[in-house]
Write a structure and sequence with these properties.
Blueprint lengths: L2 E5 L5 E3 L2 H7 L4 E6 L6 E4 L1 H12 L6 H13 L1 E4 L5 E3 L2 H7 L4 E6 L4 E4 L1 H10 L2 H8 L3
Length: about 140
């Protein structure tokens, strides 16, 4: 949970906040994939990616739609390891997809971290129905 704003360094590395690295634990890595119908990137801890892969194991190789889904998720994802300073290198294709250049908004989303261009983040917030709608959906 939480939100941080960090900058990509000249080598296009992004520092993941230490509190979030601690949650990942011994794995010292994250999986990255493009946002689904959102102009952001998603960082998934290994445990969440393992759940996703386990769900895909039950898919049928004879089903063209399921084969396409497996290929898309696997080919669009990347495994990122932390360096000694807690940074990950995001590849150029992913940076371009999300429009990330300088500053990056890192937003906690319970089981993942979303990486946003600050302008896209501001537009998303402006168009969001906010906590009241979420609370109604959760029957709070």
């Amino acid at each position: 949970m939480g939100k941080h704003v960090h900058s990509l360094d000249p080598k296009k590395r992004l520092t993941i906040p230490s509190v979030w690295r601690d949650v990942v634990g011994e794995a010292k890595s994250l999986y990255l994939m493009p946002g689904i119908d959102r102009p952001c990137l998603m960082l998934l801890p290994p445990s969440v990616m393992a759940q996703l892969m386990q769900r895909m194991e039950g898919m049928h190789l004879s089903d063209p739609e399921e084969m396409e889904l497996m290929l898309t998720v696997a080919s669009e994802s990347d495994h990122l390891s932390f360096d000694a300073q807690g940074r990950v290198r995001v590849n150029d294709e992913h940076l371009s997809f999300a429009g990330l250049e300088g500053e990056v908004v890192l937003a906690g989303a319970f089981n993942r971290i979303e990486l946003w261009n600050p302008e896209a983040w501001a537009a998303r917030k402006k168009s969001s129905s906010g906590l009241s709608t979420a609370a109604k959906s959760l029957k709070m």
